[in-house]
Amino acid sequence: MKKLIKLSLIMLFVLASCSKDDNTSDVNSSSFLVGNWEYMAYIDENGYAWTDDDSGSYVFTKDRVKIKLESGWDGEYEYKYLPDSNELIFFGTIHKVEILNNNEIIIRNSCCGSQLQRNQ
Fold first, then answer.
1. Domain boundaries, the chain
2. What angle do CA 34, 47, 27 make, to 5 degrees?
3. What is the pLDDT of residue 53?
4. For residues 67 and 54, is the Cβ–Cβ distance under 8 A?
5. Cβ contact 107:97 at 8 Å
6. What would the pLDDT profile of 42-69 be if each residue is shown by its tens digit?
7. Residue 94 half-sphere exposure, CB side, CA atoms within 13 Å?
8. Which of 18, 38, 54, 69 is 20 to 30 Å apart from 116, CA to CA?
9. How much is the pLDDT for 71?
């Protein structure tokens, strides 16, 4: 019985010491966007996904995003991600981040958006 209690306490300690701040898949973390995201589709104002329009990537570091699309639009910008409101601010614009799951998001501006999938 003592061994079971000791084992339970050890497991509790190990699980409690894990930090979720280091997890880029935690949607409530400011580091959630960090990584390489593949451009999947253009989402129009009616919510229709145009998958054949373009390809490319968004690469997020701690405070910069590099966007490269085959259509020719590319650039590197400082950004700020506010996980409480799911707002992404870059290029002088506030974008809304719609989180589909830990590996898929849509970055929306006032009418349209880009659907992205995290590269593993």
1. 25-118
2. 25
3. 63
4. no
5. yes
6. 898 888 888 876 688 999 999 999 999 8
7. 5
8. 18
9. 77
26 token code pair: 């935690």
Residue pair 37/60 in contact by the 8 Å Cβ criterion = yes
Ranges of the chain with pLDDT below 50: 1-23
Which pTM value belongs to this model? 0.71
Q: What is the CA radius of gyration of the chain?
A: 19
CA atoms within 13 A on the CB side of 16: 6
CATH of domain 25-118: 2.40.128.280
Structure tokens that stand for 73 in this block = 């639009």
Q: Please give the angle made by the CA atoms of 57, 62 and 92, to the nearest 5 degrees.
A: 70
Give just the sign of the alpha carbon dihedral 24, 28, 30, 36. positive
